[in-house]
Design a protein that fits this description.
The complex is a heterodimer. Chain A is of the alpha/beta class. Chain A contains nine helices and 13 strands. Chain A folds into two domains: about 270 residues, Alpha/Beta hydrolase fold, catalytic domain (Rossmann fold); about 100 residues, Rna Polymerase Sigma Factor, Chain: A (Orthogonal Bundle). Chain A is about 30% helix and about 15% strand. Chain A has a nine-stranded mixed sheet, with helices on both faces. In chain A, strands 3-4 form a two-stranded antiparallel sheet. In chain A, strands 8-9 form a two-stranded antiparallel sheet. In chain A, strand 12, helix 8 and strand 13 form a beta-alpha-beta unit. Chain A is globular and about 65 Å long. By secondary structure, chain B is of the alpha/beta class. Chain B has a single domain, classed as Rossmann fold (3-Layer(aba) Sandwich), CATH 3.40.50.150. The chains are: A alpha/beta, B alpha/beta. At the A-B interface, helix 8, strand 13 and helix 9 of A face helix 3 and strand 3 of B.
Chain lengths: ~375, ~230
C-alpha cells in the first residue's frame, strides 16, 4: 500500500509501509544492521512543486504514524489532531505532513514483532537494541525515498522532541526549522528509573516468556498494563490528578478491600488495560531502552552545544510546560542555552499549565498560539 | 516611533547581531530587523510577550535578564540592548557587566532620578516623586534600583566601561546628544541612552562560567571582525 492516497473525512491522506530494498538495511548505533527495513508512515496534504513544504512529525514513546487522523487500531482520534488539520498550526492545505512509526515500534515499522529473516520467527529479544539516532536515520531514509531534500520543519514532543534534536545534530542541512516540545537533551536518572520499573513489570509477567511470547500464543498483558500505569502517572501533574479525581470514590463508601475504590485507581487501571490492546510489550522494552540511552551531549564530547554547531541555519523553537516533571522546563532551558552557545537562532517559551507532560496532546491555547506564530513566520521566511 | 527606538535605530550598524534584553512584544527587534537587517535575538520574561514575538517571526527566548544572561556565550553579539529596565534588575551592576561580556557594545537607557521634576517633587512634597517618567507610587513601582546620571556614569567608570555616545531622551522629542558628566544635564535630562563598550580586557575571574565550554562560534556574514579583546 506504499504511496496510497485516499480521502478520509475530507482530508487528503496518504502513506503506507515503505519497504526498503533488501540491500538497503539500516545501520544501527550498536553496530548491527537492520534488514529488511520497513517504515510505516502516514501523510496529510500535498507536497508542493518546489518540495519545500514537508513537515516531519515525530511521535512519543507510545505514539504512532496516525497523528492527524483516526487511529485504525483504537478507533480514536489521532494523537495530534489538535495540531494537524484545517485551520490548525499544521494545516494540510499548506504543508505536506509526514508522520512515521519509529523503528522498534509496533504499528508497521520494523520492530521486535517483525519476522527475523534468519529464524523466520518473530524477532522478540533477538531484535537489536536501537537508539533515537537509529530512529532518525530510518526517518531520513524514508524522507529521501519520498524525494524530499529539505524538510520545512521537523516537529515532535517528548521522545519526538528528542528525535527533533537528533535530526538537528545529524542532518542540519536537511532542515529549515525544528520544533522541540516537552523534551530533554538526555534521560535523567529519574527517567531511567521509571522506565526500569516498567520493564521489570513486563519481564516479571510469566506470559512474557523471555520475550518469545509471540510464538507461544500469549501476551504479557498484566506486566505491560502495570508499566503503562506507572508511566502514565509521570505524564500528569499532581495538580491535574487532584483536580480530575481528588479522593473521589467509585461507589458510595469504601470496599474495605483492594477493589478500585478511588476514581484515580479505576482511571489508571483503564489506562493500563486499554494500552495493552494497542501496544506490544517488547516494543515497549526496546523504545524505553532507546530513550534511556539518549544523551545528546555525550555523543558530542560531553558538550551539548557541540551537537548544534552545524545547525546555525536552522530556526529552532523549544517549548516546555510549567507542570511537566518528567522533562521539566530546566531541561528545555539547557537545550536553549546550548543552542544560544552554538550561535543558533532559537526561540523558547515555557507554557503555563497544570496539565503536566501530556499537555502537548491537549488543547492548550498558549501552546497553540506559540506553534501558530512560529510556523506562520517560518513559512513566510521559507516563501510558503 | 518611541524616541529611544529612533535613537537605537540610528546607533545600530546594519547587518549586526543584536540581543534585546526585555524585548517585550518585539517592537524594537522587528524595527531593527526591517530597517537594519540585523540578526536579532530577544530575551523576554512574559509568555505573552514571547508569543507576540514568535508571531512576528522573531527569535526570542523566555527568560530573565537577571539570571539568564550568564548563559550566553562571550561576544556572541555586536550589541546588547537594555531599554529602560536596568533599574528593575536585582543586580544592575552584574547585568551591565554581563551585557558587555556577551556583546561588544551595550545600548542602555536609564531614567534620571536627578531630573529637576524629581528634585522639585521631592523637595516640595516631601514624598517619593511620581512624575511622567516614573509615574508609579513607591509601593507598586518595579524600579528598585533607581539612579541619577552621575551615579550611572560613576558605575561605568568603576566597571571600566567607555561611554561611546550618550543622548538625553524626553517623551515626544528627538534624542539630544549630551555630555552625561555635565552637571546641568543631571538636572535637565529626564532619561538618557548610553552606548557603552569595554575599555580594557576583563579582569580575571569576572567572567561567569560558561556551562557549555568554549564553543567555536561560526560568524555569519558578520561585519569585519574587530580586533579581538582576549580575556586573561
Amino acid at each position: 500500500m506504499d504511496g496510497a492516497v485516499e480521502t478520509e473525512a475530507g482530508k487528503e491522506t496518504g502513506g503506507g509501509v515503505h519497504r526498503f530494498p533488501a540491500g538497503k538495511g539500516l545501520r544501527l548505533d550498536s553496530g548491527a544492521t537492520l534488514a529488511p527495513l520497513e517504515v510505516a508512515y502516514k501523510t496529510y496534504g500535498k507536497l508542493n512543486e518546489t518540495r519545500t513544504n514537508a513537515v516531519l512529525v515525530c511521535h512519543a514513546l507510545t505514539g504512532d504514524q496516525h497523528a492527524g487522523s483516526v487511529n485504525p487500531v483504537t478507533g480514536r482520534p489521532g494523537w495530534w489532531e489538535s495540531v494537524i488539520g484545517a485551520g490548525l498550526p499544521l494545516d494540510p492545505d499548506r504543508y505536506f505532513v509526514i508522520a512515521t512509526n519509529v523503528i522498534g515500534g509496533c504499528m508497521g515499522s520494523t520492530g521486535p514483532a517483525s519476522t527475523n529473516p534468519k529464524t523466520k520467527a518473530p524477532y522478540g529479544l533477538t531484535f537489536p537494541v536501537i537508539t533515537i539516532a537509529d530512529m532518525v536515520r530510518a526517518q531520513a531514509m524514508l524522507i529521501e525515498a519520498l524525494g524530499i531534500e529539505t524538510l520545512f520543519a521537523v516537529v515532535g514532543g517528548s521522545m519526538g522532541g528528542m528525535q527533533v534534536l537528533q535530526w538537528a545534530a545529524d542532518y542540519p542541512e536537511k532542515l529549515f526549522s525544528a520544533v522541540c516540545v516537552a523534551a530533554a537533551p538526555r534521560h535523567s536518572a529519574q527517567n531511567i528509573a521509571f522506565h526500569e520499573v516498567g520493564r521489570q513489570a513486563i519481564m516479571a509477567d510469566p506470559d512474557w516468556r523471555g520475550g518469545a511470547y509471540e510464538g507461544e500464543g500469549v501476551r504479557p498483558e498484566k506486566g505491560l498494563a502495570v508499566a503503562r500505569m506507572a508511566a502514565h502517572i509521570t505524564y500528569l501533574s499532581e495538580a491535574a490528578l487532584q483536580r480530575k479525581f481528588g479522593r473521589e470514590l467509585q461507589r458510595d463508601g469504601l470496599s474495605w478491600g483492594f477493589d478500585a475504590d478511588f476514581q484515580v485507581e479505576s482511571y489508571l487501571r483503564h489506562q493500563g488495560s486499554s494500552f495493552v490492546d494497542r501496544f506490544d510489550a517488547n516494543s515497549y522494552l526496546y523504545i524505553t531502552r532507546a530513550l534511556d540511552y539518549f544523551d545528546l551531549a555525550a555523543q558530542h564530547g560531553g558538550v551539548l552545544a557541540n551537537a548544534f554547531v552545524k545547525a546555525r541555519g536552522v530556526r529552532f523553537c523549544v517549548l516546555s510546560f510549567s507542570s511537566d516533571w518528567l522533562y521539566p522546563t530546566a531541561e528545555s532551558r539547557d537545550i536553549v542555552r546550548a543552542l544560544n552557545a552554538a550561535g543558533c537562532r532559537a526561540s523558547f517559551v515555557e507554557i503555563e499549565t497544570d496539565k503536566g507532560h501530556d499537555a502537548f496532546f491537549l488543547d492548550e491555547p498558549l501552546f497553540d498560539a506559540a506553534l501558530r506564530g512560529f510556523f506562520a513566520s517560518t513559512a513566510q521566511a521559507r516563501g510558503l | 516611533m518611541r524616541e529611544d527606538f529612533a535613537e537605537i535605530l540610528r546607533l545600530v550598524r546594519p547587518g549586526s547581531r543584536v540581543l534585546d534584553v526585555g524585548c517585550e512584544d518585539g517592537e524594537l527587534l522587528e524595527l531593527l530587523t526591517r530597517e537594519k537587517r540585523v540578526d536579532g535575538q530577544g530575551l523576554e520574561i512574559s509568555p505573552a510577550g514571547v508569543s507576540a514575538c514568535l508571531a512576528k517571526g522573531l527569535a526570542v527566548v523566555q527568560g530573565d535578564g537577571d539570571r539568564d544572561l550568564d548563559h550566553f556565550p562571550t561576544r556572541a553579539f555586536d550589541y546588547a540592548i537594555l531599554s529602560k529596565t536596568l533599574q528593575q534588575m536585582r543586580e544592575p551592576r552584574h547585568v551591565l557587566s554581563e551585557l558587555l561580556r556577551i556583546a561588544d557594545q551595550a545600548i542602555v537607557s536609564v531614567p534620571n532620578f536627578a531630573h529637576w521634576r524629581m528634585r522639585m517633587s521631592l523637595m516640595a512634597r516631601g514624598r517619593m516623586p511620581e512624575t511622567r517618567a516614573l509615574p508609579d507610587p513607591w509601593w507598586s513601582t518595579a524600579n528598585i534600583h533607581l539612579c541619577t546620571l552621575r551615579d550611572f556614569t560613576d558605575l561605568c567608570r568603576e566597571l571600566d566601561l567607555r561611554i561611546d555616545a550618550c543622548a538625553a531622551l524626553t517623551a515626544g522629542k528627538a534624542a539630544r546628544p549630551i555630555q552625561p558628566d555635565g552637571l546641568l544635564e543631571n538636572w535637565r535630562s529626564e532619561s538618557a541612552l548610553f552606548l557603552l563598550s569595554r575599555r580594557v580586557a576583563e579582569p580575571a575571574g569576572a567572567a561567569p562560567q560558561n556551562l557549555f565550554g568554549d564553543v567555536e562560534l561560526p560568524k555569519p556574514d558578520a561585519p569585519a571582525p574587530k580586533p579581538r579583546r582576549r580575556k586573561r
